[in-house]
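Re: weekly structure request thread

Next one in the queue (289 aa):
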Amino acid sequence: MTKIFVPGHISGFWYVIESDDILRTGSLGAGLIIEPGLIIEYLDVDECKVVYNNAEIDLKTYRDGHEMADVPCKAIKVSSPYELGVGYGASAGVTIGGLYFSLSSAGIKATWNKVGEYAHSAEVLNKTGYGDVLTEIYGGGLELRISPGAPGIGAIDKVPVSRDIRVITIRRRKYSTIEMFRRYGEKIKVYGPEAYNKFLEDPSIEKFGEVSHWFSRMTGMMSRSYESKIKSVLKNEIRRGSVIDFFVKKSLLVIISDESGYLDVCNSLSNLGTPLVFTLNFSGCRILY
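Done, posted below.
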């Protein structure tokens, strides 16, 4: 049976660009596109539902995406290494995969851009994401959003980066994207454009880590006390050069490491939670047979 793979996406810094046209609303920023990601498969049952890691969930973006596409909503099963709603762009991935199956079932041979239009619109409508659909469809490892909007309207550039990079995450607490913007929205508006311009001066994985660290501290997502705590926990790995940098995005602590040192980083972090390790994804969404 056909399955869909959708990578995860972790933004390091961003700011929202609003438009009267929902397809042109989006964000400018940069982020890491990661795998493993979501594996999505069609369930042959006559109902609209999402089974996420064996638990049935109610995902409004999924239902809204189907309403926008004007196709019957189908049931899907999602296998994922991470939770929904903590900063990996999972709601976008679920909606992308489900819409692909539903459009196909309705006899519509849609391109990824067309699937992305509906998924992006649903994400923006629900304020759950402004760049995840665009980046997850295109892939690219370290992406730079250079034009806001849905796939086919928005655009990304890809920053050259080694495949040896490892991305290590630990979930701290869980709160919605809406809550994130309520807490930090005004500071994101102020520091997002500044972070974006800083990164343009030297687009690289090192600069991405540095600017993301700065952005998460300036917006308040990473307090100075938490910053000091992580520096203390990882002092040996930082000294050896195993840590490129770290930052906090929404509910996630994110550490950028390399292939040679990431296991030491994971060991040092183990008292803070369960580390998840990812590689960079360069292909975007793809069909698995």
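The first helix runs from residue 60 to 69. The chain has a mean pLDDT of 96.
Next request, please.
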